[in-house]
Each structure stands twice: as C-alpha cells, then as structure tokens.
Fold these 2 entries.
Entry 1:
Amino acid sequence: MNTAAFFRVEGTLTERGSLAASAWLASNAAGVGERVARLGNVALAAPFALLGELQTGATATRVTWMGVRGMTEDRLVLLAEEYYEKYLKDDVLDIGRDLLKQAKKQGRRVVLISDNIDLVVGPLAEQLGADDLICNRLEMRKGKATGRLEDPVIGGNVTGQWARAFAQEHDIDLMASWAYGASAADSLLLSAIGQPCAVNPDRQLRRLAKDHSWPVVEK
Amino acid sequence: MSGGENERDAVASIRAGWVAETFADKHLLVTGVTGFLGKVWLAMLLDFLPEVGRVTVIVRGKKGEDADARFRRIYERSPVFRPLRQKLGQGLRALVAEKVRVVDARLVEPLCGLEPEAARALMKDVDAVVHFAGLTDFEPDPQQAIDANVRGAWHAADLAALSPAKRYVHVSTTYVAGRRSEEIPERLDEGVSPNGTPFDPSAELEGIEAELRTLDTKTKRVDAAQARAEALGWPNIYTYTKGLSEQLIATRNDVVTTTFRPAIVECARRYPFEGWNEGINTSGPLVWLLSTSFRRFPARPSNIFDVVPVDTVARTMMLVVAEALRDESQEVYQCASGHRNPLTMGRAVELCALSLRKLLRETGTDWEKHVLSRLEAYCHDPSKSEVFGYRRMRQAAKATRNFLRDFKLERKLSPDLYERIDGERLQEELRSFSMKCRTADRKLGQVDEMLRQYRPFIYDHSYVFRTDNLVNATARLVGEERSLWGFDVEEICWRHYWSKVQIPGLDKWSLPLLRGEKVPEDEPLPPADDSREGVRRKTGEVARVDIEAEIRATA
C-alpha cells in the first residue's frame, strides 16, 4: 500500500485564499462599472467567511465564485495565469515547501487540496511537482463562466469521508499517511489521517492540535 | 472520369512521401521570395524538400543592392532562414548555390524585362511558375498597384506560357470576395464583379489606366481607382487589383492556372520559429492602436477575423503546388481559418486587450503600467456617436488649436495684470499647448483614416471563406507529410496563439517599425574560407543564370 501527504494549499503553502483570487479576477473584468458590480457580488461571500468554513461548508466557496459569472474563459485563463505569476509563484511558504520536499523524499504521494480553482492553483501544483491536485473547476458554457462550480465542489472543510474514498481509490494507507492543515476547517481531514500536522494554525486549530497532541509547525 | 477512377486516383495519392516525390527534380520559377510569405515558403522548400531540382527566383535589385546581394542578404541574415543556417551552417551556401538561381528581372515589364530568346531559354525546363509577388498596401498609388498586382501577374503568366507544362500558381487573397457578407466558395465567377456586375476585365484595366494617366496627383488617382473599385464591389484598391488580376488570368488559355487565396497572414506558429513576423501586416496597425490610449475599437464583435499563421499558409501552399505539379489541382484554394476554427472580432479584441495589458505591465512606462493597462479596449459600434469618441476629440483638438492660434493674451489683459501674472510665460505655454492640439488633431486624423480603410473587414462585412479544397488535399496526406504540409487551422488554440505568439511576435517584429524603430536582423553567416578560390566559388556564391549560355544551349 502507498502512503500520501495531503496538503491544504491555503495556509500551508500560500497565504492567499480563494476569496482573494476570486476578488482579484472580478476586479479585472473588462469595464470599470463591471468590476465594481462583480466585486460587490464576491463580497456576498464575506459573511459566510466570517461564520467560518466549518459551519458553511461549500456554500462559501460557491458564493465566492459567483462573482465571475459571465466572464469569458479566455479572460479567466489569462488572468489566472497572471495571478499565479504575481501572487503565488514566488510566494510559496517556506515551511510548506520544506514539508512537501520531505514528503516527496520519503516517497509519499503528494496530494494538494484547495478550494481555489484549477486555473489558479494548477500551475502551482505543477511548480511544486504534486502528484494530485484536488480543487474546483468553473463551469463553462459557450466560452463563458456560468458562475457555478463543477461537482464535486471542494469547500473549506474537506471531510474524512472524502479522504477515505480517495485512499480506497488510490490504494493509500491512511494510517501511515500525513496531512497538513492550517485552519479549523481542516480538522475534519486531519482527524481522518494517521499522521496529522498543523502548520501555522489559526486559534481554533491550535487548540484542537493541543487537545489531540498533533504536532504543530510554524515558520 | 467515373467514380471508380476517382477513388483509384485518391488511393494512389494516399501514400507516404508523395509531396517529396512530386517535387523531386522539378524546376520551379518563383517570384516574390523577398516578401513575407514567399520567403517562408522558399525556406521551407529548401529545408524540407531538398529533393527539388532547381528553384529560379526572380528578384529585383533595390536600394543600391543588386538582385544577388539582396537575395544573399535574405538567406544569410533573415530570421526566416535561421533554422536552415542552424542546421547547415556554411552548408547553406552550398545548398543555395546548388539549388537556387537568381534572375534579376522586373515583373512590371513584358516578359519580366527579358528578351524573348532569353525568356524561352530560361523557361525551357521549368515545371511550374509560382507567383507570390504583389503589393499589399490597402491604398497605394493605383498605378503601382496595377503594375505589381495585375501587370506583374500577367507577365509571370507569360513566362509560364513559355514553359513546357504551362503551370502557373497564382497567389491572391480571399478578400477578392469584395463587399459581401456570406459564405465565399472556392471559385471564380468569370467576368462578374463581387457585386454581380458583368464586366470585361481587359476593358476595365484599359479604362482605369487611361483614366489614371489623365490625373496628376496621387490623391486624385486614389479617388478615381477607389470609386471604380467601389462601383464593382471591391472595398479598396488592393482587393480591386487582386480581383482584376484573377479575372484577367482566367481569360488566358495558354496557361493552366491554380489560384491560392490566403486570408490575413500573420505570425508564425512554428516555422521559422514561434512568433516570427515581418513588416507591417494587417493586424499590426490595429494592435499598435490598441496599445495606445485608443480604447473604443470600431468592430462588430460577431464578425470573423480571419487570421492564418504564415507557416500554415506556406505549408499548405506547398501542398497546392504539389497538386499543381501532378496536374491534379483545383482551380481555387482558399486558406482561411473562419470556416473550420472561427475567431470572432470580439474575441480577438479581448485577447488583444488582455495580452497587451500583460505586455504594458511588464515593459510599459508608468502611465502605461498603472493607467492604460487597467483600461481595456472593447468593440464599439462606430455608427453611434459618443462624447469621448475619437472624432469628437479630434474636433475639440482642432477647435482649441484654432482658438489658441489667434489668441493674444496681451490684448485681452491690461498691461499691469499681464505683467503681474507673467503673461509672457503664460502665452508661451498656451502656444505650446496649441502645438500639442495640432499634433493630436493630425494623429487622430491618421487613426480615422486607418480605421476607414479597415472598416470593411472589421465591421461592415462578415466573411466565411470555404476551405474544402485544402481539407480534401490534406486528406490525401499520410504520416509525416500530413504534419508537414497539412491544413492545420483546426489545431490552433486562439487564446494561446494570440497571447503567446501573435502579440509577442508583433511586439518584437512589427510594432517597432510603426514606432520608427528597427527590428533586429540575425548575425550573418561567417565568411566562407576564401583561401581556396575554387572552394569559395563552389560554396559561397549564388548561381546566376547565364542567359547567353542558355540561349546558345537551346540553339
């Protein structure tokens, strides 16, 4: 059986979340008026973000990406490339990069999990040499985004159920695998894996890590 | 021919290497190899089909360079020959010396300026004449356009008529379709203009030339030719002369003509390398315009912007010449993307805006980085008037200029006040602003003129050029030859092409010319080792046609 290392991208590898990416894409729509309207739409996701991803699940993620509805695939692809170049490529967190290198050295299958879209995090996964990328995909129709995400939607809180299904499909021993998360929403994933680790954790995850005696690493 | 025979012929053609077999030991006479497309075609011919027997190129000496020197400069320094130079090094000279012969001749003269005996000697073993040469300006001096596009083609066909097989491959343009918004078939309606007017092309040529002779200025000649073009349904002098040329050649029965019509020829996808372009082609000025403060682009978003990479045009042209050499060609081939993989004007403008935004952010001035890159160009209906439209801005600039030209501050103010506010300095600033208004008026006038010329293609008409003949010709290719010579527009990802190929290519090879700058040439091949005169002669010089010797041999 193989072992894997699951990395939640947001928090362990990058500081920027999907809300930032969505807002940036919306703010670069074609016209100035359109940018304002789209940003307003993205802002609707803010209350969900405040409630916390554990409570809202994938709803926050769905609302976050509604703001790009009607933008062309060309625009989203080219802007996502620019976003990656500008904000992600050279800003990978050192601690996450080191953990990922270590996992690869130990022969683990590296799985990146993100609630961002493939256009944004795809190049990052390639850059880091990840084996799998689990992320969201925008639904496109006639060359334009519908504002919906393709199923299954990856929310802030990836569950242990998902991890078990993935492990079964790819013949992975979850008990011998590692998982790295940064926020309380990642606790469901961390609890399902044999070797959980909190990376730069938020307050809630820090408490959980302490309670469960999970290792905590910080930069 | 029966259906069964057709099938057998088709099966016979489907075998590996038939293009190479067809070109083997053939002698081609080619015009226009110093031009954008002809150059790529010749480089590909020498690179991929070294089996070809001989290529005689007609080159005219220019700007103090004779034909030999001009051609040598091309294969030694043009980026188009870079793959061949990298592959063969000094050996390129040997290849050129062995395969290529340069004839210094003028296409505008009957028999290209050759004596009849010399022409017959030259053509005695030519298998096909491939005519690329032409003038692609939209609004040139009409007589020059007629000389290059009509007379030049006629004279090239005259040469073809002297060859044994009388094959003549004529490069035209899809836009001979004129002012039409429909699907354009691959055929020529002889004696009928684009708007359906029956006309005699010979009489038309005589008529327009007679009229041009009576006019003393270029403006009058342009107006006259433009009016004639419009009356027959062509939007400009370029398409009028190209259309007239096709019609005239079609009246000849002393040559077997194959017409090849490319659409808008743009940056290379692969050959000689990604992004290569030369000179100021169709989309160069439009892209340049969008890289300035100009934002309302007068185009209809649903119209097709029919762009084809130059190497796609050159490779399919090779296929067409192969079919002509086998006497299997169709009368007309159109090489366009709109039929199989359409790129709409709206999409092209958005891709252009997004690609330019990236370019401006990377290399622009502060104004370009922080302001222009955030304000994208978009398609705009030119029939709608706008407060900040460029025409209104031009009017405002002109009015301001006129007002300030006669404005004297000294006369308007009391001497005391004039002195107190430093009127002299203020007057100087007003004068400087007046000059800026004049420059703005002139530049906006140039933009207006340019957009007027482009309007038929980006707003007025939506063409879909059928490309069935190239598709069918490609179906007869197998294996490596299909990837080398096949019609591949369906494979083009316009997003990649526009953002990674076209805009960076234009930025490097075309836009500098519009800014009055130079584009780089490659380092020349190192000089041949001239310590041994015999070797130098063998490998270092372009073979020239010794017309006298040819005549003696023929006699």
Entry 2:
Amino acid sequence: MSAQVTSTGFARFGKRPESLVDLAAEAATQALEGVGRKPCDLLVVGNMLSGPLNGVENLVSRVANRISLETSAGLRVEAASATGAAAFHAGVLAVESGRYERALVVAAEKMTDRPTPEVAAALARSLHPTEQVAGATMPALAALVTERYVQRYSPDPSVVDRIPVEARRASSRNPYAQFRTPVTEEEVRASRSIAPPLCLLHCSSIADGAVAVVVESGSGAATVRGIGQAFEALPIVDRPDLTTFASSRSAADRAFSSAGISRKEIGVIEAHDAFAPFLLIDLEDLGFAPPGGGSAWFSGRGPGPEERVPLNPSGGVLGRGHPVGASGLAAIAEVARQLRGEAGPTDTGTHPRFGIAQSVGGLASHNFVTILGEAPG
Amino acid sequence: MTEVPPAILVSRCPSCTLRYLPRAGPCPKCGAQTAVPYGLPPFGTVLARTELSSPAAGWPSPHRLALVELADAVRVLTIVDGPLPEAGSRVEVRRDGEVYHATAAPAAPAG
C-alpha cells in the first residue's frame, strides 16, 4: 500500500505566546483544511518535552479535543530531536499497512516558557546517564564531536562559519522560520561562545513551533518512496568513530534501499543542522559527499555549478529555529512542499522529482531518513 | 613518597575482548553477560575537550569536559578540574562515585 503527503501546515517557529496545544492546533488546522477537512482515522502526535517543560500529558487527547478531531485512533511518538520524523514514520507505517486510510501527523514543541538552563537540563535527558551526571549537554557533546571531526579532516574553518550564513539567507525567505534576517560570517565568529569551538550562531535556538502533515494512501508528487531509521550506541565513549553518525548511514541505506532510486536523483535535501558542523557530517553520512568531503560539497555543491542540489531551502534547523519535537517533521514537510509545488517563497525553482529529509535524534543516537517523490513506474 | 593514584576499574568481556567502563547490563558489543574486572593506570590522553559557559541547571560556569582515552582504548567522559587541557595532552583520571574527573598530568616518563 503506497502512502503520500497530501497537505502540510505550519505554526511559525519562534517565541510564541500560544500554548503547546494551541500551536499544535494551528498547524493541524492548516493541514486539515488542505485536504478539505476529509476525515482522518489516525492522529499521530510528536512531542518531546510536554511533561518537563509544559506540565502537559495525555497529549494526543489534548490535541484531538482542541481541534475537535473525530478519529478512531491516536498515538504519541518521541525520539528526542528526531521526534517529528519518528512521528511521520509512524503515520506512514500505519497507512502503508492498509489499516488506516488517512493519518494526521502533528509535531509540536513549546520551549520558551522556561529559563534556558532548565531547558538545557531537560534536553540533556536525551543523553546517557553517565553523561548527564558529568553535567554534559547537547552543545558540549556536539563540541567534542566537532573537535574530533576537525582533527581528522581539517575542514576550511570558514565553511563552518558559512553554514549559519546560508541557513539565515534561506530562512529569511521562509515565513514560518524563526530567523528572518541574514547574518554575516563575522557575526557568526563574534557570537557568544557556547561550547568551544561552537559559538551561539553555530547552534540552533530554543523555539516554539508546530508542523502538521496529512499522510494518506495513494501516490502523487510526494509519495513516500523510502523510510529508514537506526540506533547507534548512546554513550559517546562507546562509539569508535565520532566523525560520522553510524545511525544516519544505516538509516540512509535503508531508505534508499526501499526507494529504488539513486542519490543522483535527489533534487532537494533537508538535513539536520542543529549544530553547524553536523551539516558536513550529514552530507557525508547520507552519501552525497565522501568521508571528510562535506565542506568541499557545501562549498561547491557538486562537481559543477549546474549540479547544485538545493540544500535546506527552508533554512534548516539553524534558520528555522529548533522546537525539538517539531523539527524533524518540518524538514519532511518542506521536502513535500517542494515536490508538490507548494513551497511558495522557499521554492527552489528546480522542480525536483525526489527529495530527502534527514533528522538527528539526541546526540545522533537515533536518526531518521525519509525519501519522498514521484510514484514508481 | 608520592601517593600512587588509584587504578581505574574497567571491565573486559571474555567473549569479544572489548574493554569498557563498568556498567549495568551486558557487554555493549556482543551482549555477553559476564565481565572480568581489572584496573588500568589512571592516566589518559585528551581526545577532545570543551568548556560550557551556559551549563545545565545546577552546574557552575564555566563547566569543563574532556573526552579521555585510557589504556586499552577505553574512553571516558571526564569533568576537568583546573584549566582546560589541550587535545593530545596527558591527564590523570580519578573516579568519584559515578563521575570521572581529569586533571593535568606531567608527560609520561620515557622508556
């Protein structure tokens, strides 16, 4: 049974006064109206921190009640910062099974109500307990990964500083993004130190936001061609190589295996750049660049300018902002919009036939890859 | 006489020979249920390090961390006591409950 994305909805990312449930409802309502309010028989809600940050549980019931959705089934999905992608995969599996006709997948997060140290502590719950008791945070471990990558491959340092610049250039065109103004490389380098070598503008932001998509049986421009996910050892001390995310490589292999297309056919990429250097690792893990070749790929975007593949036209995690439970679905929704000609201001103008979205869960312990595109045959 | 710092207790898997820090559960590589404890010299090399100016709630700023490799390729995430060491430098590692700490150590004796 084939599944496709037929509608998307966004509640703009940033600091929002609305509650978590209201943000979810805003995105969900848009997506439902995009399919003329046809009935959905499954509601999937993706969220990571509603308990610790918002004091909200039983979230599926809360969202269903808020949008007056009569649905026969619902479930909540969590996979740290890949939650949104995990929620999408759950909806796809349900529709592909034939048991459900139409799934509304909503991913939302509300993070700006609480002080930053409290949010950082909540996010650190994604880490292994041995890392938490050492006071490690996501940025800290991302910094250690970055150091190992730089030691091995010595990428041009200006490339890492250009990643946020490109992200902001793209997100300035995205009405749903948190960051609508550009930044310069000088501003990136001069931004506050977070965890050296990472500065503030190398790191994604705490944000509120929500995304929704409708996944239904059938095929179209945004048919689900392949999904893949994989774990990797949770403690970083158990990973022999910190310059690559084995979970991304496995997830990509699984997605491409079922998609039946080659990497050359991908016409738009949304990759997870919660920390700027991760984008280089993502490009390598997805197989678009050889190991250590991420910075050359980013600079040149392929052998010749005519082969530039649009990368993170939404602005990516850096440009959109990072409501952690929603980001993974935002990447998928952007790919779907590009394929369906619904991207509006972020449209790449290249009419891609296939697109890929990649999402990193935690410190890359649980990663997801999604390939959408035209139906086979 | 200089006090000798205590060895770092680690585990060796009798099935796949992986060496790792003590933990609940089976061997992280092969799943074998038994592990053989032994001690490693409490010195290692800094693989990577960083310093948090905005640590998680409850931690002082700055909070310094180092990924250290002991002998037998056993790696440990440590809290750095003192100045931030350079990658490649030698540190002394000590265990305090569930937490490991690293401090700068003189270069290893030659020979």
